[in-house]
Amino acid sequence: MDVEIGIQNVTRPVSFATDKSADEVSAAISEAVGQGTVVDLTDVKGRRIVIPGKAIGYAIVGSETSHPVGFGALG
Fold first, then answer.
1. In the beta sheet, which residues pair with residue 5?
2. CA nearest to 15, candidates 36, 34, 33, 41
3. Which are the contacts of 47, defined by CB distance < 8 A and separation ≥ 6?
4. How far apart are CA 47 and CA 16, in angstroms?
5. Cα dihedral 18, 20, 21, 22 sign
6. Of the four, 10, 45, 69, 71, which is 20 to 30 A from 52 by CA?
7. Distance CA 64, CA 25 (A)
8. pLDDT over threshold 60, residue 75
9. Residue 3 burial (C-beta neighbours within 10 Å; 0-12, 13-18, 19+)
């Protein structure tokens, strides 16, 4: 799942991929913004991303589809 979170007053967004579903990511972000807590997610490399809910400007939660690279069976 690709996630992009825009931080208020910061030019570059925080972008990462996570194994969580779109519903789990959306729920974590919604809870953090609503309650004024932090979003605490882990990316596919095991790094923790912790962002204060008050600082979130926007969030884009991408699709869960993978994009294979290479040649499939031809013919």
1. 14, 59
2. 41
3. 16
4. 10
5. negative
6. 45
7. 12
8. no
9. buried
Q: Using alpha carbons only, how large is the chain's radius of gyration in Å?
A: 15
For the stretch 71-75, contacts whose Cβ atoms lie closer than 8 Å and that sit 24 or more positions apart, written own/partner, are none
Structure tokens at 39: 């979003």
For the segment 9-68, what is each residue's pLDDT rounded down to a tens digit? 999 999 999 999 999 999 999 999 999 999 999 999 999 999 999 999 999 998 665 555
32, burial (CB in 10 Å: exposed 0-12, middle 13-18, buried 19+): buried
Measured CA to CA, the distance from residue 68 to residue 22 in angstroms comes to 20
